Structures are given as structure tokens and as C-alpha cells.
Amino acid sequence: MNLTFYPGPSKLHAQVEQHLQEAFQSGLLSANHRSTAFMAMLEETLLALRIKLSIPDGYEVYLTSSATECWEIISQSLVQQASHHVYNGAFGKKWFEYAQRLHPATTGQLFGFNDFPPDPAHVPAAEVLCVTHTETSNGTALPLPFLAELRKNQPGLIAVDATSSMGGEALPWLLADVWFASVQKCFGLPSGLGILIVSPLAIERAQALNEQNHYNSLLFIRSNFQQFQTPFTPNTLGIFLLKRCMQERSPIEKISTSLHQRAEIWYNFLRENGYKLLVGLPEVQAVTVVVAQDSEENIRMIKAKAQAAEITLGNGYGAWKKTTFRLANFPAITTDDSDRLMQVLQRSDKITG
């Protein structure tokens, strides 16, 4: 079977095959989503997420169709005039541009992907300040001190796109009011489900604005989830798989420690084997997405060599599409998987000094 290191959709957890059979045999896939059986399953899913991700008391957990839908929910239900977006890559930019379509006064603040984020004291106050925790397009991540200082300086809400880190890293929940992700990355599941986590302050803000004009208005989502229901016909299979995955996996602190250690191994390996890292500043190198850079010709040869070994590397993204490859460092990828890829990528002219 081909082994994929694509950073989303990525490798599924090995147990998914068994859980698919369980889902079919359970009868839940044919159950009405207002039924007692479905509501019990949704309640179990939310509880498992809360326990295994160490989500603080008072923060509420909802499910959506995707992280992209969460962009829309935030702009519709938590923003009255404008949000402000601090970003350094393609997905942060896409979020900013989408938010600007809904609220034209929305502003953006671009910083270099090989730089530290801007001084939080120089980030304008906003109704909602929006940042991307791990930028999948270039393999960068926000340093914890930056988020901590933002929290001190921002009077409004802070929203974090954690699509490539939730489920893989222990996140500092209390440093933001809205966290969201999709399940096809660190959760090791098929795409088609999003996770939205909101603080008491975010709920208060939604109640103050009282926006209820859409099927996915935050207050309408909340009123449904308080009854363990959904505001639309849900992805029942996706919810079942998420429940079983979360029930079986280790606590996030253990997973996070393991991924941090493996990321360090990957960065050292690439440097020692003569690969140039796209992100040279260690403080902003992502844990879950590692990006190496080379000439267009060499990247083609590297990817072809990997493909011959039945391994798929992630393509570069945007401006780096042809001159980089990306590696997912997600929980479903095992140490044996990484060792197998390292054997393919190892170069004879290894740098030892």
C-alpha cells in the first residue's frame, strides 16, 4: 500500500478500517439524527474530544463541515464591522480575503514567513483578531510567547485556525477564544468534518450581536449542540469515526511530546543530508508540517524516487509548488513510516560537521 506524507488529507489511522465496519454494523448510519441513538453518540464524541484534548471547562465544542466553514461562522456571528488578520502564508491570506468579502472594512497584516510575527503591541485592536497557528503552505508556526502577548494586548476576541495542529499539539486554549480545525490532518480521519471550540467570551459576544440569519449562525449551532443535535443533517459516519478515534488515542500531552521529538529528528536529518529548509528560523518552524527546498529538477527527482518506493511526498504550495516538498508529521504516521522515508531521502554526501 502506498504510504502518504501529504499534509492533508493525509494518512488515516490504522484503526479506521475496523471503525468503518463497526459503524456499518451499529445501525447508526441509518439512524435519524434527532434519534436518541444519534444524540448519545454525539454526546460521547464531544466528551471524548474534551477529555483527550484537555479542553478547559467553560469552552464549548461544536462540529461543522470543515475549517473553512468556521471562517464564515466567525465573520457572520462574531464580527460586526471588521476583523483583523495577521498572517504569513496562503491559508491565512485566504481566510483574510474571505472575511473581507463579508466585511469589507476587514484588515490584514502580512509578515515574512522566515521572520518572527509582528510585535503584539503593534497589532491593531480588533473585534476579532485572527491568526493561523500552523501555516500548512510554508511550514511555519506561531511561537507561544507571541500568542501570550497577543492575549495581554488584545481587548477583543482572538480566533485561531489550528487546522494543521489541533489533535497533534497540546494547544494553549486559554490564549484564544475560538479554535477550529478539520479532521483530515492530525486526527487521521477522512475529510468532511470540522471542529469548532469557543470560549465563554466568544459566546457572550455572539449573544450580544444576536446574529441568527443563517443555518450556521453560532447561536443556532449552540442551541442544537446543547441538545446533542446538529442544525443540519450531519456527517454521521465522520462523527462516529471521530468518537472512536478519540476514545482510543492517547492524551494530547503524550502525542504532542512525541511529535515534537520526531519533528526535531526530521529537521536534523534534513540538515545533515544537505537539504535546505524553507523555514530557517527554528523558533517558527512547524512541528506538524516540515518543508524542504531545492531546485525544481532536484525536487522532481526526489519525489520520483519516493514514488518508486511507494511513498507520496507533499507537493509544495503556491510560489514554492515546484521547488519544495512538504512532509506531514501527524500522529497517524508511525516512527517506522518516518524511518522508511528517511532511507529513501538519505544522501551519500551526508553532512556530519
Automatic annotation (TrEMBL):
The keyword Transferase applies. Residues 5-280 form the Aminotransferase class V domain. Gene3D superfamilies: Aspartate Aminotransferase, domain 1, Type I PLP-dependent aspartate aminotransferase-like (Major domain). It holds the Pfam family Aminotran_5. Keywords: Aminotransferase, Pyridoxal phosphate, Transferase. GO terms for molecular function: alanine-glyoxylate transaminase activity; L-serine-pyruvate transaminase activity. GO terms for biological process: glycine biosynthetic process, by transamination of glyoxylate. The keyword Transferase applies. Its cofactor is pyridoxal 5'-phosphate. InterPro entries: Aminotrans_V_dom, PyrdxlP-dep_Trfase, PyrdxlP-dep_Trfase_major, PyrdxlP-dep_Trfase_small. PANTHER family: ALANINE--GLYOXYLATE AMINOTRANSFERASE (PTHR21152:SF40), AMINOTRANSFERASE CLASS V (PTHR21152). This is Alanine--glyoxylate aminotransferase family protein.
